[in-house]
Design goal:
It comes from Salipiger profundus. This protein has 199 residues and is an alpha+beta fold. The chain has 9 helices and 4 strands; from the N terminus they run E-H-E-H-H-H-H-H-H-H-E-E-H.
Length: 199
């Protein structure tokens, strides 16, 4: 089956909501999901944009909107203190898990999202992220070493830069059949595009 690429930053509220639905959408389309965390700051360097939580007016609106979406979807959602965190440790951990145990990668990403937006997981802390390892039958020390591996660090940097070079600039961001869709609110359009063959 062809993949539906799901690009996101672990600190993105809208990506959290997209993560709750993306698997079901993909199944309905006969696709698999390629989970692809990256550092949104990489895109900001190119676009000159700022994150919602760093932008006056947009910050207040986004927080109201996230709370509204959570109520509508029946989800628990609580921003951690000092949001947004720079989720580099969590991103590196994901790619280590994907490399070592690809069958666990999507579940690991979902767990990071849940803990960040409900239990204040410090996604910037390698030690905090490594404590998730036993939930997946992994050793914290191995995950911690993986996060610190220079080769993995380079891989994560390259993945983010390659994504931006392909036009990825937001979170969540989807690519399906080379067609880009930016934003949680484009998921229905993306679904219809694939089902109809586009327009």
């Amino acid at each position: 089956m062809r993949s539906l690429e799901f690009w996101f930053d672990f600190s993105s509220g809208y990506a959290f909501f997209a993560a709750q639905r993306i698997d079901a959408i993909a199944v309905g389309l006969g696709r698999t999901v390629l989970w692809r965390p990256y550092m949104l700051g990489t895109a900001y360097k190119v676009t000159g944009a700022r994150g919602l939580s760093s932008t006056p007016l947009k910050r207040d609106y986004a927080r109201r909107d996230w709370a509204r979406i959570a109520r509508h979807q029946g989800l628990t959602f609580q921003l951690p203190a000092n949001h947004p965190h720079v989720a580099l440790a969590a991103t590196r951990a994901f790619y280590w898990v994907e490399t070592q145990h690809p069958e666990l990668a999507a579940a690991f990403a979902k767990r990071v999202f849940t803990l960040y937006f409900n239990d204040s997981l410090d996604t910037a802390s390698p030690e905090a992220v490594s404590r998730l390892a036993p939930e997946f039958g992994l050793k914290p020390g191995a995950l911690l070493a993986g996060i610190a591996d220079p080769a993995l660090k380079e891989k994560v940097r390259r993945i983010g830069e390659d994504a931006v070079a392909r036009g990825v600039f937001g979170s969540p961001f989807f690519i399906v059949d080379e067609e880009p869709f930016w934003g949680w609110d484009r998921m229905e359009m993306m679904t219809e595009w694939v089902r109809t063959g586009g327009w």
